[in-house]
Design goal:
333 residues, alpha+beta, 7-stranded mixed β-sheet, 16 strands
Amino acid sequence: MAAFLGGPGEGPPCGTGLGWAGEGPGTSSKNRRVCHATARLEMGSLWEEFNRLGTEMIVTKAGRRMFPTFQVKLSGLDPLADYVLLMDFIPLDDKRYRYAFHSSSWLAAGRADPAAPGRVHFHPDSPAKGAQWMRQIVSFDKLKLTNNLLDDNGHIILNSMHRYQPRFHVVFVDPRRDSERFAHQNFKSFSFPETQFMAVTAYQNHRITQLKIASNPFAKGFRDGDPEPWCGVPAGSLLGAMPRARATALPSRPEKQEKAMEDWLPPYPPQPAPPAAPPGFPELPAPPFQPLACPRSVYVGAKPCTLPYPLPTFPPLSTYGPTTAPTFGYGQQ
């Protein structure tokens, strides 16, 4: 507790702690409420296993959860101070990729698409005391990835076939009136290279599909059940048939099962249009379209909230170079 003595936000600045933090300029003047913070990535061995194969994360119009889920264990926070936890996703390079099936590798296929709108995902328990954050594992299981540029649900917007690095930020809620002057001192960022991934609309590497089914606890039915009614292949050959089964139509599932089967199933196909009315029965007229009356300054569908703290401008991803590239092969054409 000696590191946290003094008034709110007071005390001499300190340098960066452990080598996990991937921060930009100004790391030598962090507030004492955050400079001692450390984060340990949970399920590190599983992330490493995916990273060796080349992690892929599904993005859909409706939004898809990540698997493995990003989870961290925090320490070094002031138990009595308020903190906000959030995540963002940074492009790793300026290239677009394609998957070469004959060599089972990713190849650069040109310049990157225009950058998607930058967004951050706040942990739903924010803000909370440091003691609460350190008491248990912090899980970002509500975070969803989408490729819908017009998304109004607050999901993280990514471009398919682009590489991304998740970043985790701890922000101290500074109670001072002029706290915006110290915003650059009141946060600490963490990046774990083993969590970088390729955003895709369908899995390209069949080994990724197999590993997700083998390690996802919600995929038990696909490991133990008879796959014949699902994809029409002989029993016992489900894993080998997964790349061919991606285009197979899946039955619609209720909303309650969506959370359990989010990441490792392909997107559901569009539902057929309802049949026309039988002869002799007049069709009901379509209801008139009523646009929402909303000021131009309001983002329709967004869920705004008043922040009790100034959100700092996080530095660009400048700490990752060729020496920290993933172990799987991203080739060059």
